[in-house]
Amino acid sequence: MNPLINTPQAAAHSATHPHAPRAVAFATGLLAAAATAATLLAPPAHAIDAHQLAPQDAELVVVVPNPQAVSDRIAELSKTLNVLAPGAANPMRQIMDAMGNPEGVATDRPLVIALEDIADYVNQQAPQSEQLAEEPLTITFVPVQDYGRFAASLGATSADGISAVVLADGTEAFVTQVDDYAAMANNEDQLAAYEPSDRTARLLETVGPYAERLADNAHAMAVIDTQAVGPAIKQILDATTAQPDLEDAPEEFKATMQAQMAMTSVFVEGLLDADATLVSIDLGKDALKLAMATKFPAGSTGAATFIGKPANPLAHQLRDLPAKPYFMAIAMDLAGIDPTTLLNQFVDATPEQADAQRVQLEAAADMAALINAGATVFYVPDQPAMNPAGFVNAATVYDVDDVDALVDAFADITEQMDGTTQPIPVPGPDGQLATADIVTRAALNRDAVEIEGVSLAEWTYAQEMPPELMQAMGPMAAFAQTNMSGYIGGTDGRVVLTSNPDVAMAKAILAPNTEILAADPPLATAMDNRTTPDAAVSGYVSFQGIAGMANNFLPMFGMPPIDVPADLPPLSFDLGADTAQLVVELTLPTQTLDFVAAEAQKLQATMQPQPGNAPARPNDGTPPAPRF
């Protein structure tokens, strides 16, 4: 059991001090440094009762179990990745400098930051607010070996009660002792009224069962009272969506943009329906892991979307896809999530004027309702892409109960999409913006080809760009054209969907073969190392594939190809779903981060002018001859 969740409240804490009220802003430098530390932690050797330091009204609580270990790990990573950010070589030193270099700090014990009144602060950021935003009330609990020594080193006149101290940047803060901690605040009244509570433990219990696993393995933790902060964020989001900065845009284009912003609002507001949210960071030797866990109340969109536990291992979904160079692979099991709920919310939020978006969303919801599980792989194109469609070389395999129903649904989508329009601003004859339509052309040809006894339909999709736009784009117009095609069909509960005109892709999936993507060594290792329980979605990003796409273009610019190690692990992300609960984990292997950093530095060096490359200017002032 994690002590951050299950330790009983300590009875010995008491820190109420009768002082006259004074409102003085806390040091911005300290807050920034503390926030940086709060996101970069090392695994706790002992979390003691640090969570009990948070006051009852805290809306955000951050725990840094071992700041010194974190600092050492950041310094190690910075050296490995050749990061030259200020303070990266010794973050602990930077934090201490921001605090005024106090003495007596126990840098190997938990640092805790508690923020109150975040909702009020966010409300003051709203477009319609006329209030001058004040910083949230903040208490930072600094672990100390000797509080008297700590206070004296900052200029406090006494080790008793609340003292005003001056920080490194000249601003004033307030400090008092709470057991073996120095409590520093930006408001004396807040510090005088402070009492410890079990606030963090109760918030973590609200997050649900995933919280215990993440807290046990966390290198960093931030617990957010989403119910308290969410309404204020929603208010700003609604105001921004209702008043988009599109004054000079045509009305039809405004409707399209409003549709996209409305969908964003639905998604964000769904996350903000949660009771509480836990964010954690793990600075491991082999990988950096970022995680978020949250639970949704009954009746919310989130509760309806994250419905239970998947039935099948996700690696099973990649069994039929061929082992070819890829840059992204995604597998999902809809026993754990119900995307139709979210898609229908998008439909309801989309203005009727945005016809093309509504059709696509409604069609996606209809198809999602027929799918049990599936996997999609984006393969590296065989040739350099000369238009947007050239980058899409995808293949998908769906597990379904009714093959014909899914193919029929896809046919209906194709028919509904054909002829839909999407407005776009174009140059008008008088120099002002006008509106023209991008017209979608879509078609489906049933029984176009038969492979391995399976009849496949061929689909086509193209967008006709307005002539005014094509003329304005000149030679770049070819890159704006979208013209795609592929195949769909299936048997025995499996449907194949490709976005490649080459029938060989469909054949590679349908024909029996042993070279499957799930057996690719780096990908197989990443799947074996996945730690998210009840994963409903897993995704993998391969730098071999990204380099393969880049290598199609680099010779055009006189640059050498990128050589990627064969064993370079992919970046991965997992989405776990339990009843009304969600956890998202992002894994960044340090080997891959090191490789990417090294390649970025090579690219930067290649692009910088080198000494001796510029021709010497003749002494008579004649311009140098051009070089080719």
Write a concise keyword list for the protein shown above.
disordered N terminus; 20 strands; 21 helices; 628 residues; 20-stranded antiparallel beta sheet; single chain; alpha+beta; globular
Describe this structure in words.
With 628 residues, this protein is α+β, with helices and mostly antiparallel strands. The protein is built from 21 helices and 20 strands. It has a 20-stranded antiparallel beta sheet, with helices on both faces. Helix 13 runs antiparallel to helix 14 and helix 14 packs antiparallel against helix 15. The N terminus and C terminus are likely disordered.
Approximate strand percentage? 15-25%
Please describe the biggest sheet, giving its number of strands, its sense, and whether it closes into a barrel.
Answer: 20 strands, antiparallel
Tally of helical runs: 21
Q: What oligomerization state is this entry in?
A: single chain
The counted number of beta strands is 20
What is the percent of helical residues? 25-40%
Low-pLDDT sequence parts? 1-48, 129-133, 613-628
Ends: how far apart? 68 Å
Alpha-beta content class = alpha+beta
Average pLDDT, all residues? 77
What is the molecular shape?
A: globular
Rg calc: 29 Å
